[in-house]
Amino acid sequence: MDDEKPLPRPAQSVPGEVRFQAFRQAEALVRRRPLAALKALEPVLDAEPDKPSVQLLAGRAYFHSAQLNRAERALSRVIELDPSDHYARFVLGRTLQRLGRLVEALAQLRMASAMNPVPEYQDAIGEVSARLALGNP
């Protein structure tokens, strides 16, 4: 059928060094060219779909390419695999904010800030809190 996805390739079909280089290439591209980053990341996603660092990088690329539902899924998967990943929670919070789900965004941003109280996280909390206070849920 046309809607069936191809089965992922086993991890051993793509050598570790090739996956490492693909990951590094995607990392270098994620902000400037997120679609190219996703393309570079494909063999790594196929080989290691449950690796938090791979899902986080995919989530960031989806976020930067405005594929927000995919970003949410990838970042939620990171948090499932590693609940202590404050950066994944921050990017998930920003994703939810862009989706207009401000209450959920605020919860993720607060957790991220509690884990790592950096100014960027606290600024995001202030921004979302202000929008909620203005009645813009």
UniProtKB/TrEMBL annotation:
The reply to whether tRNA processing figures as a keyword in the UniProt entry is no
Q: Does the keyword DNA repair apply?
A: no
The entry's keywords = TPR repeat
Where are TPR repeat segments found? 52-85
The name under which this protein is listed is Tetratricopeptide repeat protein
